């Protein structure tokens, strides 16, 4: 039996928070309405935070709030009150990168633990030591740190380490890219990032426009778009290194993504920690991960410097393959009928897949759909409509029904 | 009032010419511990330039502002102790672990975490931890710079000339691109290339690769026209970066020295100074003001 690292999931809103915890997250991180970096993600009001904390704490899970804005003059106003409110709501920690914000939190909201955000690019053990001495509980490492470096950090310093295991990545050192500021007047470090790295650029050399030549030859423009991270195959390495928290990126992602990814990582972590000697990686885990993938997947900097294979060149590959079709809101074991809340169009004859917490999953063909009055209908074509379908195997509330959309890409990892 | 001209230097010879041209502080370093430094700054060369600068009553700052990984940290104490022994005046640093070791070596430092230095309160945080000044992010507007300087007793460095880095990736993005194209990848690190953004074909962002990854620069910044405003707001530490100014750099520093003298005796002629800088600007590099003259509220 090994000590289990925390599985930390993104939660863009209350529904995602609940689903993440249902599907196995030990902790979630959310954004408040101020001081965050995801101005477009659903952010939590204080009341929603209270509800989220009550839900999470009732199930032994934690809630962290990301307040990782790099503040300019005036931005920090109200931060002390903000942090005190979070503390009083019962938030378990805040994730901060700006030293002024850290100082404000430590001095004005005593008792609220502070985690250093990945935006601060912590890349060495001496930096971990610095922040530990300043009073931080945890450091979220930069995505550029290798597995060997993590092992050394854990040997050198006794501070909690959180590291990303899954999701989208900045191609730069986080926080060290202001392409968006300069090209679109949107501040990447204050929640405005326009993702300029993913654009297609002209590329010159001493006056010669390479891309122009290349367009003529049908070649590739310059771009800096990273594939996504997935460490699903490498969980034992994190456990052995003594990493305290495994983080999934994606506060903007769907419920389907959060549930799928949490479900898989929960399985892998538990399987390894319960019986490391006899652990065998189940290919079904990886297959499942691909169902929530939006780009190709790779292992980032953990085992080497990423090559061109870990960047997106060429035409966008046809990834999302599975859509969130419906959520189960009730199940009648006598009739075998599940009541669903529709999230995407589906019809009789379509093959769908149900899955639930604990890595339960099965496929079936939709044979009947009934509306709320019990009348048979051909398809569920209205957003959020309530319908009933016959299911082949038992399901439960908060199971998810997904349907295939395209052909999955299976490269890298 | 003491206005300080801080200039990069690519060799001992250039350093000597820069001192004659009016530089007060030379900014040098190697790519192991510093970011984006040109020139072969071996320990011997650092010693030589430090002795040279000190003979002229000038200072030397060494860049120790890289993002440090464990292996850098293992070598860093030795390096900064050597710098201290040579008599280097101070260093720049932004990595908190590096700062810890620099303070132990008792060498003064300027807080320089590049894009992350954006407020007075941050600088005060490092000031309480012995920083002697700060290099502020080039994304901070002049209006904000004035506000910052007003609140703190430490000098705030403002870039008045040259390019600034707007993207640092640890990945070899040019090598990766060349591999993708099937072009010889050894070319990637040998030369500097340029990018243009999709919406502006005339834009030119220098991009190059070194052992620390890939770096993209902005257009060349200039605050020549705003020097009186800087003085008015007590912004007295002026940085000039000669990354691609080549041999013209010494002349450009001379021009800023001249501008400084004119400002002090009330004869600063903005139009003339800007015209003369334009004449010295190397061909092909746009000269602009980046985000410096934007209103803070324009940047979302």
Describe what you observe in this structure.
Chain A is of the alpha/beta class. In chain A, 27% of the residues lie in helices and 23% in strands. Chain A is built from eleven helices and 21 strands. In chain A, the strands form four sheets. In chain A, strands 1-2-3-4-5-6-7-11 form an eight-stranded parallel beta barrel, surrounded by six helices. In chain A, strands 17-16-21-13-14-20-18 form a seven-stranded antiparallel sheet, covered by helices on one side. Chain A has a two-stranded antiparallel sheet with strand order 8-9. In chain A, strand 2, helix 2 (46-58) and strand 3 form a beta-alpha-beta unit. Chain B has 300 residues and is α/β, with parallel strands linked by helices. The mean pLDDT of chain B is 96. In chain B, helix 3 runs parallel beside helix 4. In chain B, helix 3 (70-86) links the parallel strand 3 (59-63) and strand 4 (90-93). The chains are: A alpha/beta (413), B alpha/beta (300). At the A-B interface, helix 4, helix 5, helix 6, helix 7 and strand 8 of A face helix 3, helix 4, helix 5, helix 6 and strand 8 of B. Strand 8 of chain A pairs antiparallel with strand 9 (193-197) of chain B, so a sheet runs across the interface.
């Amino acid at each position: 039996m090994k000590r289990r690292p925390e599985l930390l999931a993104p939660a863009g809103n209350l529904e995602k928070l609940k689903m993440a915890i249902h599907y196995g997250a030990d902790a979630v991180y959310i954004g408040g309405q101020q001081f965050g970096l995801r101005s477009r993600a659903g952010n939590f009001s204080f009341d929603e935070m209270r509800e989220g904390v009550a839900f999470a704490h009732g199930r032994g899970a934690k809630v962290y709030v990301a307040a990782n804005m790099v503040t300019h003059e005036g931005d920090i106003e109200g931060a002390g009150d903000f942090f005190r409110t979070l503390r009083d709501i019962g938030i378990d920690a805040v994730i901060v990168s700006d030293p002024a914000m850290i100082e404000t939190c430590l001095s004005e909201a005593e008792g609220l633990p502070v985690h250093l955000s990945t935006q601060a690019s912590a890349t060495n053990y001496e930096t971990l030591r610095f922040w530990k001495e300043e009073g931080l509980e945890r450091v979220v490492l930069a995505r550029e740190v290798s597995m060997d470096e993590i092992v050394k950090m854990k040997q050198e310093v006794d501070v909690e380490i959180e590291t990303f295991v899954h999701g989208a990545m900045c191609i730069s050192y986080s926080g060290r890219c202001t392409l968006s500021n300069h090209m679109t007047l949107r501040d990447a470090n204050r929640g405005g990032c326009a993702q300029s790295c993913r654009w297609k650029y002209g590329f010159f050399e001493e006056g010669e426009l390479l891309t122009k030549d290349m367009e003529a030859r049908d070649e590739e423009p310059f771009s800096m778009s990273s594939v996504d991270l997935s460490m699903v195959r490498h969980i034992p390495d994190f456990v052995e290194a003594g990493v305290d928290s495994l983080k999934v990126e994606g506060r903007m992602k769907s419920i389907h993504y959060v549930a799928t990814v949490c479900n898989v990582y929960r399985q892998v972590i538990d399987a390894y920690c319960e019986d490391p000697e006899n652990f065998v990686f189940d290919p079904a885990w990886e297959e499942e991960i691909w169902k929530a993938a939006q780009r190709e997947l790779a292992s980032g900097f953990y085992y080497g410097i990423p090559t061109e294979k870990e960047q997106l060149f060429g035409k966008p590959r046809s990834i999302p393959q599975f859509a969130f079709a419906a959520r189960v809101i009730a199940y009648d074991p006598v009739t075998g009928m599940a009541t669903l809340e529709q999230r995407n169009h589906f019809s009789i004859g379509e093959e769908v897949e149900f899955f639930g917490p604990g890595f339960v999953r099965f496929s079936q063909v939709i044979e009947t759909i009934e509306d709320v009055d019990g009348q048979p209908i051909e398809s569920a074509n209205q957003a959020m409509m309530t319908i009933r379908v016959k299911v082949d195997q038992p399901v439960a509330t908060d199971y998810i029904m997904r349907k295939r959309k395209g052909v999955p890409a299976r490269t890298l990892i | 009032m003491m206005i300080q001209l801080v200039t990069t230097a690519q060799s001992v010879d250039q350093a000597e010419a820069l001192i004659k041209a009016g530089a007060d502080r030379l900014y040098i370093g190697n790519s192991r511990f510093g970011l984006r430094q040109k020139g072969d700054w071996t320990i011997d060369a650092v010693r030589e330039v430090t002795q040279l600068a000190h003979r002229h009553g000038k200072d030397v700052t060494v860049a120790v502002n890289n993002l440090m990984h464990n292996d850098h940290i293992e070598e860093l104490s030795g390096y900064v102790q050597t710098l201290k022994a040579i008599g280097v005046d101070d260093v720049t640093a932004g990595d908190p672990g590096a700062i810890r070791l620099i303070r132990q070596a008792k060498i003064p430092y300027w807080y320089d975490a590049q894009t992350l230095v954006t407020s007075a309160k941050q600088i005060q945080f490092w000031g309480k931890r012995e920083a002697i000044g700060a290099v502020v992010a080039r994304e901070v507007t002049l209006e904000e710079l004035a506000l910052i300087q007003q609140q703190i007793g430490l000098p705030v460095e403002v870039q008045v000339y040259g390019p600034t880095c707007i993207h640092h990736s640890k990945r070899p993005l040019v090598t990766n691109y060349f591999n993708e194209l099937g072009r010889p990848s050894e070319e990637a690190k040998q030369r500097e290339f340029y990018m243009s953004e999709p919406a502006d074909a005339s834009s030119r962002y220098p991009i190059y690769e070194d052992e620390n990854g890939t770096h993209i620069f902005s257009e060349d910044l200039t605050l020549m026209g705003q020097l009186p405003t800087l003085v008015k707001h007590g912004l007295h530490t002026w940085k000039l970066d000669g990354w691609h100014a080549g041999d013209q750099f010494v002349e450009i520093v001379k021009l800023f020295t001249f501008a400084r003298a004119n400002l002090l005796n009330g004869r600063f002629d903005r139009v003339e100074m800007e015209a003369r800088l334009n004449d010295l600007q190397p061909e092909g590099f746009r000269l602009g003001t980046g985000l410096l003259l934007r209103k803070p509220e324009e940047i979302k």
